[in-house]
Design goal:
Layout lengths: L4 E7 L5 H14 L13 E5 L15 H13 L5 E3 L8 H5 L4 H7 L10 E5 L8 E5 H4 L3 E11 L3 E3 L1 H4 L8 H8 L3 H15 L3 E11 L7 E11 L2 H11 L8 H8 L10 E5 L2 E3 L1 H8 L14 H10 L6 E3 L9 H5 L7 E2 L9 E2 L9 H5 L5 E3 L1
Parallel strand pairs: 1-10, 2-3, 2-6, 6-8
Antiparallel strand pairs: 1-9, 4-5, 6-7, 8-9, 10-11, 12-15, 13-14
The structure holds iron/sulfur cluster (2 copies).
Length: 379
Amino acid sequence: MNKKSKVILLPCSSYREEIVYENLEIGLELLGGIEKIVKKEESILLKPNLLKKAEVDKAVITHPSVVGMFARLMREKGYQDLSLADSCGNGTTTRVIHGTGIDRYLEKYGIPAIDYSKGIRVEYPEGIQAKEFILPKELLEKDCVISLCKMKTHALERITGAVKNSYGFVYGFHKAKGHTLYPSADSFARMLVDLNQYVKPRLYIMDGIVAMEGNGPGSGDPAPMNVMLMSQDPVALDSVFCNLVHLNPEMVPTNYHGEKMGLGTWKKEEIEIVTPDGTITMEDAVAQYGNPYFDVDRRVARSGMWERLAKALNIFQKKPYIDPERCIRCGICVKSCPVPDKAVDFRKGRENPPVYDYKKCIRCFCCQEMCPEKAIKVK
Ligand code: SF4
Ligand code: SF4
Protein backbone atom coordinates (compact mmCIF):
# COMPACT_ATOMS: atom_id res chain seq x y z
CA MET A 1 0.00 0.00 0.00
CA ASN A 2 1.27 3.48 -0.85
CA LYS A 3 2.38 5.66 2.02
CA LYS A 4 -0.13 8.34 2.94
CA SER A 5 0.70 12.04 3.03
CA LYS A 6 0.83 13.16 6.62
CA VAL A 7 -0.80 16.43 7.63
CA ILE A 8 -0.38 17.60 11.21
CA LEU A 9 -3.44 19.42 12.54
CA LEU A 10 -2.72 21.53 15.63
CA PRO A 11 -5.76 23.02 17.38
CA CYS A 12 -4.67 26.51 18.41
CA SER A 13 -6.92 29.45 19.14
CA SER A 14 -4.41 32.03 20.28
CA TYR A 15 -1.39 33.86 18.94
CA ARG A 16 0.14 34.01 22.41
CA GLU A 17 3.82 33.24 21.97
CA GLU A 18 4.05 30.30 24.37
CA ILE A 19 0.96 28.62 22.92
CA VAL A 20 2.15 28.97 19.34
CA TYR A 21 5.66 27.82 20.31
CA GLU A 22 4.37 24.75 22.13
CA ASN A 23 2.14 23.78 19.21
CA LEU A 24 4.90 24.19 16.65
CA GLU A 25 7.19 22.06 18.79
CA ILE A 26 4.55 19.32 19.08
CA GLY A 27 3.87 19.52 15.35
CA LEU A 28 7.51 19.03 14.42
CA GLU A 29 7.74 16.05 16.78
CA LEU A 30 4.66 14.51 15.17
CA LEU A 31 6.37 14.89 11.79
CA GLY A 32 9.32 12.92 13.12
CA GLY A 33 11.54 15.87 14.03
CA ILE A 34 12.79 18.82 12.00
CA GLU A 35 16.25 17.19 11.88
CA LYS A 36 14.84 14.56 9.52
CA ILE A 37 13.69 17.30 7.18
CA VAL A 38 16.53 19.83 7.30
CA LYS A 39 20.16 19.30 8.24
CA LYS A 40 21.75 21.59 10.83
CA GLU A 41 24.46 22.81 8.46
CA GLU A 42 22.05 23.77 5.66
CA SER A 43 21.17 27.35 4.80
CA ILE A 44 17.44 27.84 5.23
CA LEU A 45 15.12 30.49 3.85
CA LEU A 46 11.87 31.12 5.72
CA LYS A 47 9.13 32.18 3.29
CA PRO A 48 6.07 33.72 4.96
CA ASN A 49 3.12 35.18 3.09
CA LEU A 50 3.95 38.90 2.99
CA LEU A 51 1.48 39.98 0.34
CA LYS A 52 1.62 43.66 1.26
CA LYS A 53 1.93 46.02 4.17
CA ALA A 54 -1.17 45.60 6.29
CA GLU A 55 -2.24 45.64 9.90
CA VAL A 56 -1.47 42.27 11.46
CA ASP A 57 -5.01 41.66 12.73
CA LYS A 58 -6.40 41.93 9.18
CA ALA A 59 -5.06 38.39 8.48
CA VAL A 60 -3.30 39.46 5.26
CA ILE A 61 0.15 38.15 6.23
CA THR A 62 1.40 35.13 8.15
CA HIS A 63 1.07 36.16 11.78
CA PRO A 64 4.31 37.48 13.33
CA SER A 65 3.87 35.16 16.29
CA VAL A 66 3.92 32.07 14.01
CA VAL A 67 6.97 33.37 12.13
CA GLY A 68 8.72 34.46 15.34
CA MET A 69 8.09 31.28 17.31
CA PHE A 70 9.18 29.09 14.42
CA ALA A 71 12.36 31.18 14.14
CA ARG A 72 12.92 30.74 17.89
CA LEU A 73 12.44 26.98 17.63
CA MET A 74 14.90 26.67 14.79
CA ARG A 75 17.46 28.75 16.65
CA GLU A 76 17.01 26.69 19.83
CA LYS A 77 17.46 23.49 17.83
CA GLY A 78 20.83 24.78 16.65
CA TYR A 79 20.08 25.94 13.12
CA GLN A 80 22.62 28.67 12.35
CA ASP A 81 22.02 29.78 8.79
CA LEU A 82 18.50 31.18 8.72
CA SER A 83 17.11 34.11 6.76
CA LEU A 84 13.66 35.33 5.73
CA ALA A 85 12.34 36.77 2.47
CA ASP A 86 9.36 37.08 0.20
CA SER A 87 8.84 38.58 -3.21
CA CYS A 88 6.01 40.75 -1.88
CA GLY A 89 3.15 41.93 -4.06
CA ASN A 90 3.86 45.53 -3.11
CA GLY A 91 7.07 46.61 -1.37
CA THR A 92 10.22 44.87 -0.22
CA THR A 93 10.51 42.32 2.57
CA THR A 94 12.02 44.82 5.02
CA ARG A 95 9.38 47.42 4.20
CA VAL A 96 6.46 45.02 4.54
CA ILE A 97 7.60 43.52 7.86
CA HIS A 98 8.54 46.87 9.38
CA GLY A 99 6.42 47.47 12.47
CA THR A 100 4.53 44.17 12.20
CA GLY A 101 6.50 42.44 14.95
CA ILE A 102 8.22 40.09 12.49
CA ASP A 103 11.07 42.62 12.36
CA ARG A 104 11.36 42.51 16.17
CA TYR A 105 11.52 38.69 16.23
CA LEU A 106 14.13 38.58 13.47
CA GLU A 107 16.27 41.01 15.39
CA LYS A 108 15.86 39.03 18.60
CA TYR A 109 16.84 35.73 17.00
CA GLY A 110 19.53 37.20 14.75
CA ILE A 111 17.86 36.33 11.47
CA PRO A 112 18.39 38.64 8.49
CA ALA A 113 15.49 39.77 6.32
CA ILE A 114 16.46 39.80 2.66
CA ASP A 115 15.31 42.26 0.02
CA TYR A 116 15.77 40.36 -3.21
CA SER A 117 18.20 42.21 -5.48
CA LYS A 118 18.42 40.28 -8.71
CA GLY A 119 16.42 37.79 -10.75
CA ILE A 120 18.11 34.85 -12.44
CA ARG A 121 16.58 32.85 -15.28
CA VAL A 122 16.50 29.13 -14.49
CA GLU A 123 15.46 26.51 -16.97
CA TYR A 124 13.08 23.74 -16.03
CA PRO A 125 12.65 21.42 -19.03
CA GLU A 126 10.69 18.94 -16.91
CA GLY A 127 8.01 21.57 -16.30
CA ILE A 128 4.60 20.71 -17.69
CA GLN A 129 3.35 24.30 -17.89
CA ALA A 130 6.45 26.40 -17.15
CA LYS A 131 9.80 25.60 -18.70
CA GLU A 132 11.65 28.42 -16.94
CA PHE A 133 11.38 30.81 -14.04
CA ILE A 134 13.00 34.06 -13.00
CA LEU A 135 13.98 33.46 -9.39
CA PRO A 136 15.83 35.66 -6.92
CA LYS A 137 19.58 35.14 -6.70
CA GLU A 138 19.38 35.05 -2.90
CA LEU A 139 16.79 32.24 -3.01
CA LEU A 140 18.90 30.16 -5.37
CA GLU A 141 21.86 30.47 -3.00
CA LYS A 142 19.98 28.71 -0.18
CA ASP A 143 19.98 24.97 0.45
CA CYS A 144 16.31 24.84 1.30
CA VAL A 145 13.10 26.70 1.93
CA ILE A 146 10.44 26.39 4.62
CA SER A 147 7.10 27.86 3.61
CA LEU A 148 5.14 29.69 6.32
CA CYS A 149 1.86 30.17 4.52
CA LYS A 150 -1.46 31.73 5.45
CA MET A 151 -4.96 30.29 5.20
CA LYS A 152 -6.85 32.67 2.90
CA THR A 153 -9.36 32.87 0.11
CA HIS A 154 -8.31 33.87 -3.41
CA ALA A 155 -10.33 35.29 -6.31
CA LEU A 156 -8.52 33.33 -9.04
CA GLU A 157 -7.70 30.01 -7.34
CA ARG A 158 -10.48 29.99 -4.66
CA ILE A 159 -7.87 29.57 -1.92
CA THR A 160 -4.29 30.58 -1.32
CA GLY A 161 -2.47 28.19 0.94
CA ALA A 162 0.65 26.09 0.66
CA VAL A 163 0.95 25.67 -3.13
CA LYS A 164 0.11 29.29 -3.95
CA ASN A 165 2.48 30.73 -1.30
CA SER A 166 5.34 29.64 -3.53
CA TYR A 167 4.47 32.30 -6.09
CA GLY A 168 6.49 34.57 -3.82
CA PHE A 169 9.61 32.81 -5.11
CA VAL A 170 9.24 34.55 -8.46
CA TYR A 171 11.37 37.66 -8.69
CA GLY A 172 9.81 41.15 -8.64
CA PHE A 173 7.82 42.29 -11.65
CA HIS A 174 8.09 38.82 -13.23
CA LYS A 175 5.24 37.93 -10.87
CA ALA A 176 2.97 40.32 -12.74
CA LYS A 177 4.25 39.01 -16.06
CA GLY A 178 3.43 35.47 -14.95
CA HIS A 179 -0.25 36.40 -14.94
CA THR A 180 -0.10 37.31 -18.62
CA LEU A 181 1.85 34.15 -19.47
CA TYR A 182 -0.57 31.94 -17.52
CA PRO A 183 -3.85 33.86 -17.61
CA SER A 184 -6.34 31.11 -16.72
CA ALA A 185 -6.83 29.60 -13.27
CA ASP A 186 -5.75 26.22 -14.69
CA SER A 187 -2.58 27.35 -16.46
CA PHE A 188 -1.62 29.48 -13.47
CA ALA A 189 -2.16 26.51 -11.14
CA ARG A 190 -0.06 24.21 -13.34
CA MET A 191 2.74 26.80 -13.35
CA LEU A 192 2.52 26.96 -9.53
CA VAL A 193 2.80 23.18 -9.33
CA ASP A 194 5.89 23.29 -11.58
CA LEU A 195 7.32 26.02 -9.39
CA ASN A 196 6.81 23.99 -6.22
CA GLN A 197 8.41 21.01 -7.90
CA TYR A 198 11.38 23.13 -8.94
CA VAL A 199 12.02 24.90 -5.63
CA LYS A 200 10.84 21.96 -3.50
CA PRO A 201 10.14 23.61 -0.15
CA ARG A 202 10.95 20.99 2.47
CA LEU A 203 8.11 21.84 4.79
CA TYR A 204 4.90 23.86 4.70
CA ILE A 205 3.41 25.35 7.87
CA MET A 206 0.03 27.06 7.58
CA ASP A 207 -1.20 29.78 9.90
CA GLY A 208 -4.94 29.14 10.12
CA ILE A 209 -5.39 30.43 13.65
CA VAL A 210 -7.15 33.43 12.16
CA ALA A 211 -7.74 32.85 8.46
CA MET A 212 -9.09 35.24 5.83
CA GLU A 213 -12.50 34.66 4.25
CA GLY A 214 -14.49 36.52 1.61
CA ASN A 215 -12.71 39.00 -0.64
CA GLY A 216 -9.20 37.50 -0.18
CA PRO A 217 -6.29 37.39 -0.40
CA GLY A 218 -5.82 41.07 0.47
CA SER A 219 -9.25 42.52 1.22
CA GLY A 220 -11.20 39.77 2.96
CA ASP A 221 -12.29 39.46 6.56
CA PRO A 222 -10.49 37.72 9.42
CA ALA A 223 -12.15 34.42 10.34
CA PRO A 224 -10.87 32.33 13.26
CA MET A 225 -10.25 28.73 12.14
CA ASN A 226 -8.20 27.95 15.27
CA VAL A 227 -5.71 25.59 13.64
CA MET A 228 -2.18 25.36 12.35
CA LEU A 229 -1.40 22.76 9.70
CA MET A 230 1.96 21.26 8.78
CA SER A 231 2.98 18.94 5.99
CA GLN A 232 5.65 18.12 3.47
CA ASP A 233 2.87 17.60 0.92
CA PRO A 234 1.43 21.03 0.02
CA VAL A 235 -1.52 19.55 -1.88
CA ALA A 236 -2.56 17.40 1.07
CA LEU A 237 -2.21 20.40 3.36
CA ASP A 238 -4.38 22.56 1.09
CA SER A 239 -6.86 19.71 0.83
CA VAL A 240 -7.29 19.64 4.61
CA PHE A 241 -7.78 23.43 4.52
CA CYS A 242 -10.48 22.98 1.84
CA ASN A 243 -12.24 20.25 3.77
CA LEU A 244 -12.25 22.36 6.92
CA VAL A 245 -14.04 25.16 5.07
CA HIS A 246 -16.44 22.75 3.32
CA LEU A 247 -14.94 23.34 -0.12
CA ASN A 248 -14.52 20.34 -2.40
CA PRO A 249 -10.70 20.14 -2.70
CA GLU A 250 -10.88 18.89 -6.26
CA MET A 251 -12.46 22.21 -7.32
CA VAL A 252 -9.26 24.05 -6.40
CA PRO A 253 -7.04 24.13 -9.52
CA THR A 254 -3.78 23.87 -7.56
CA ASN A 255 -5.09 20.70 -5.88
CA TYR A 256 -6.50 19.20 -9.07
CA HIS A 257 -3.35 19.79 -11.12
CA GLY A 258 -1.07 19.22 -8.12
CA GLU A 259 -2.38 15.69 -7.86
CA LYS A 260 -2.29 15.05 -11.61
CA MET A 261 1.28 16.36 -11.87
CA GLY A 262 2.57 14.37 -8.91
CA LEU A 263 3.15 17.16 -6.40
CA GLY A 264 0.87 15.59 -3.81
CA THR A 265 -2.61 14.33 -3.16
CA TRP A 266 -5.92 15.97 -2.32
CA LYS A 267 -7.68 12.62 -1.84
CA LYS A 268 -8.79 12.02 1.71
CA GLU A 269 -8.07 8.30 1.57
CA GLU A 270 -4.43 9.15 0.82
CA ILE A 271 -4.05 11.66 3.65
CA GLU A 272 -3.28 10.85 7.28
CA ILE A 273 -4.35 13.61 9.65
CA VAL A 274 -2.40 13.56 12.89
CA THR A 275 -3.33 15.67 15.90
CA PRO A 276 -1.59 15.83 19.30
CA ASP A 277 -4.28 13.34 20.47
CA GLY A 278 -3.74 10.87 17.66
CA THR A 279 -4.77 10.17 14.09
CA ILE A 280 -8.25 11.24 13.00
CA THR A 281 -10.28 10.86 9.84
CA MET A 282 -11.05 13.76 7.51
CA GLU A 283 -14.67 13.51 8.65
CA ASP A 284 -13.61 13.86 12.30
CA ALA A 285 -11.38 16.81 11.42
CA VAL A 286 -14.25 18.54 9.63
CA ALA A 287 -16.69 17.80 12.45
CA GLN A 288 -14.33 19.06 15.15
CA TYR A 289 -12.50 21.93 13.44
CA GLY A 290 -14.48 22.76 10.30
CA ASN A 291 -16.56 25.82 9.53
CA PRO A 292 -19.39 25.40 7.00
CA TYR A 293 -20.06 29.16 7.06
CA PHE A 294 -16.53 30.16 5.99
CA ASP A 295 -17.02 32.53 3.07
CA VAL A 296 -15.26 30.92 0.10
CA ASP A 297 -16.25 30.38 -3.52
CA ARG A 298 -17.91 26.92 -3.58
CA ARG A 299 -19.69 27.34 -6.93
CA VAL A 300 -19.14 24.59 -9.43
CA ALA A 301 -17.09 25.87 -12.37
CA ARG A 302 -18.60 25.64 -15.83
CA SER A 303 -16.63 23.47 -18.16
CA GLY A 304 -16.43 22.42 -21.79
CA MET A 305 -18.52 24.16 -24.40
CA TRP A 306 -20.40 26.45 -21.99
CA GLU A 307 -17.21 27.78 -20.49
CA ARG A 308 -15.67 28.41 -23.92
CA LEU A 309 -18.82 30.14 -25.11
CA ALA A 310 -19.04 32.29 -21.98
CA LYS A 311 -15.40 33.29 -22.39
CA ALA A 312 -15.78 34.07 -26.08
CA LEU A 313 -18.83 36.25 -25.40
CA ASN A 314 -17.23 37.70 -22.27
CA ILE A 315 -20.34 36.88 -20.23
CA PHE A 316 -20.86 35.07 -16.91
CA GLN A 317 -17.20 35.75 -16.15
CA LYS A 318 -16.05 36.82 -12.72
CA LYS A 319 -14.87 40.40 -12.91
CA PRO A 320 -13.41 43.01 -10.62
CA TYR A 321 -15.26 46.25 -9.94
CA ILE A 322 -14.48 49.32 -7.86
CA ASP A 323 -16.57 50.72 -5.05
CA PRO A 324 -16.20 54.49 -5.70
CA GLU A 325 -17.03 55.29 -2.07
CA ARG A 326 -14.01 53.38 -0.82
CA CYS A 327 -11.55 54.29 -3.58
CA ILE A 328 -8.90 56.86 -2.62
CA ARG A 329 -7.49 57.13 -6.19
CA CYS A 330 -4.09 55.84 -5.10
CA GLY A 331 -3.43 54.10 -8.42
CA ILE A 332 -2.04 50.88 -6.90
CA CYS A 333 -4.52 48.82 -8.92
CA VAL A 334 -3.34 50.48 -12.14
CA LYS A 335 0.27 49.82 -11.22
CA SER A 336 -0.52 46.19 -10.36
CA CYS A 337 -2.32 45.42 -13.62
CA PRO A 338 0.02 43.21 -15.68
CA VAL A 339 -1.69 43.88 -19.02
CA PRO A 340 0.77 46.12 -20.93
CA ASP A 341 -1.79 48.77 -21.94
CA LYS A 342 -3.66 48.49 -18.62
CA ALA A 343 -7.09 46.95 -18.29
CA VAL A 344 -7.77 49.32 -15.39
CA ASP A 345 -6.72 52.93 -15.64
CA PHE A 346 -7.66 56.50 -14.79
CA ARG A 347 -9.69 56.87 -17.96
CA LYS A 348 -11.81 59.63 -16.43
CA GLY A 349 -8.95 61.55 -14.82
CA ARG A 350 -7.17 61.19 -11.47
CA GLU A 351 -10.07 62.85 -9.65
CA ASN A 352 -12.27 59.81 -10.44
CA PRO A 353 -11.78 56.12 -9.60
CA PRO A 354 -10.01 54.04 -12.25
CA VAL A 355 -12.21 52.46 -14.90
CA TYR A 356 -12.06 48.90 -16.25
CA ASP A 357 -11.82 47.84 -19.85
CA TYR A 358 -13.13 44.29 -19.47
CA LYS A 359 -12.15 43.43 -23.04
CA LYS A 360 -8.52 43.77 -22.04
CA CYS A 361 -8.91 42.25 -18.58
CA ILE A 362 -7.45 38.76 -18.17
CA ARG A 363 -9.13 38.25 -14.75
CA CYS A 364 -5.91 37.78 -12.83
CA PHE A 365 -7.33 39.89 -9.96
CA CYS A 366 -3.96 41.43 -9.11
CA CYS A 367 -5.78 44.78 -8.78
CA GLN A 368 -8.19 43.35 -6.22
CA GLU A 369 -5.33 41.65 -4.40
CA MET A 370 -3.30 44.82 -4.02
CA CYS A 371 -5.96 47.49 -3.37
CA PRO A 372 -5.17 48.86 0.09
CA GLU A 373 -8.72 50.14 0.72
CA LYS A 374 -10.80 46.99 0.06
CA ALA A 375 -12.35 49.02 -2.74
CA ILE A 376 -12.19 46.25 -5.35
CA LYS A 377 -14.55 43.32 -5.20
CA VAL A 378 -15.08 40.42 -7.57
CA LYS A 379 -18.55 39.57 -8.81
S1 SF4 B 1 -6.07 50.49 -5.57
FE1 SF4 B 1 -8.10 50.64 -4.69
S2 SF4 B 1 -8.12 52.62 -3.67
FE2 SF4 B 1 -6.35 52.63 -5.06
S3 SF4 B 1 -7.13 53.55 -6.96
FE3 SF4 B 1 -7.38 51.34 -7.16
S4 SF4 B 1 -9.45 50.92 -6.42
FE4 SF4 B 1 -8.91 52.95 -5.73
S1 SF4 C 1 -7.81 44.86 -14.46
FE1 SF4 C 1 -7.32 43.67 -12.64
S2 SF4 C 1 -8.07 41.62 -13.07
FE2 SF4 C 1 -8.00 42.71 -15.02
S3 SF4 C 1 -6.01 42.22 -15.88
FE3 SF4 C 1 -5.74 44.11 -14.75
S4 SF4 C 1 -5.11 43.47 -12.69
FE4 SF4 C 1 -5.92 41.66 -13.73
